[in-house]
Design brief:
Shape: elongated
Number of strands: 12
Strand order of the largest sheet: 8-7-6-9-10-11-12
Helix content: 25-40%
Order of helices and strands: EHHEHHEHEHEHHEHEEHEHEHEEH
Number of helices: 13
Strand content: 15-25%
Length: 333
Amino acid sequence: MKILAFGDNLITPEMLKNGLKAFEDNGDTVEIRDWSHKSVEALQNDNIKVEQHGANAVEVNDHELLKNIDTFDLIITQFTPIGKNIIDKAAKLRYIGVLRGGIENVDEEYANSKGIKVLNTAGRNARAVAEFTVGMILSETRNIARTNAQMHRDIWFKDFPNKDNIPELGGKTIGIIGFGHIGQLVAKFLDGFGAKIIYYDPYVSDAKGAKKYNNIEELVQEADIVTIHMRATEETHHIINQHIFELMDEKTYFINTARSALVDEKALVRVLSERRLAGAAIDTFDDEPLPANSPFLTLPNVTLTSHLAGTTADAFKNTPKLFAERFLKDKNN
């Protein structure tokens, strides 16, 4: 099998060379090309266009990148968009491998119409996201980020929005919406704090040490902290909406390190501005980078981060190896 792998600023050609060695050991040929940008920010700007408008929003036409592309059986990509123009040129293509949990940068429908199978790397940054989620919970509930910001302005800050409701995690009820790999890791980490775990997930029937709820409404009424870890689909679009927020207590904290499409942002801004939630911590937004006029920037009771949850050196470094192992295992079975 002849394989073409596209590197970028975050999964570099060197990482691909080391991580895809299993293919060469299997007798396959691997060629690596570089789609790196001038900066990570420039790469992320292209990625945002793709995530918002689809795989054909950024077209790759570089001759050297696409040279002899009609000779490859498998293309492996992280951020490089594989749209109709590349699929049409890749006459022998049988597989597209995506070094991410999602496949937003591949025109999957068009690929499938050509008999090409699209494969992702589910769970590749699950630990990174789960660890970050715990960090966001602590940062918002214990005022870590907002205190740091004020300290850098030479202000000894104590007047927190939640000054009458600063909790410890021990004994608190954590409601996890979406109990897949990430959600279960979050539960495992928070169990170490002595928290009580409840969850909603129609696809997970039983989980040791956690209580299942059959609907989100009941879960959010019981939880002190609510965190969501679902995939963004038509079914889950704005699954957290005004109705759900109104069921939360004014002492409840809401955390989102998953996709912004899961949450009605306007409803979230409304309940935060009216102090009907204790606070929130948000890593992803409908408009990225966050605009200067975003209402989130006016709220004192929210911790904001710039889409960082899944971004660790370990996650990027290990992904090619994880993909290669899974692909070869499935192909040889």
